[in-house]
Design goal:
Strand content: under 5%
Number of helices: 5
Helix content: over 70%
Radius of gyration: 16 Å
Order of helices and strands: HHHHH
Number of domains: 1
Length: 148
């Protein structure tokens, strides 16, 4: 595989990750602000299923691509992307689908702290500025979910 093709595929994965990152906040806002009535609960579940399915497909294809190609990103990048999407999935799951379950709350909390830890490592140890977005996102989600 040529270097240009490898670089294009990696850019595609990076752009898809950024799109999924933005779609989480749009979906979270839409469900939390617009669909606040209980009768819209099915729509929120459909949004969650669609978003989670796309995220899981992304994670699987990204891991397979990283294993099969010789174009490896830094491990912190891989951990950052996976922890971000998993924390988004489990946060949405525990917030909208199982809002009173302590088990899902603890899973969500542990994933959010893992996400914050990896983001802090990305900024301070690896000097990558994208980790600041992760720190702010995890802090915002922790604030929103702990007050809930």
């Amino acid at each position: 595989m040529s270097d240009v093709l490898k670089e294009n595929k990696l850019n595609l994965f990076n752009n898809l990750f950024k799109f999924l990152f933005l779609m989480f906040w749009v979906m979270f806002w839409f469900i939390g602000i617009i669909l606040t009535d209980y009768k819209f609960n099915k729509i929120a579940i459909y949004f969650f299923i669609a978003y989670s399915s796309v995220c899981i497909i992304y994670i699987i294809s990204y891991v397979i691509y990283m294993k099969t190609s010789n174009n490896f990103e830094k491990k912190i990048e891989v951990f950052y992307k996976i922890s971000t999407l998993l924390s988004f999935i489990f946060s949405t799951l525990s917030y909208y689908i199982f809002p009173i379950s302590i088990m899902w709350f603890l899973i969500k909390l542990s994933l959010l702290f893992t996400y914050m830890y990896i983001s802090i490592l990305k900024v301070y140890k690896y000097k990558l500025e994208e980790g600041v977005v992760g720190i702010l996102a995890s802090a915002l989600m922790l604030f929103m979910f702990l007050r809930y």
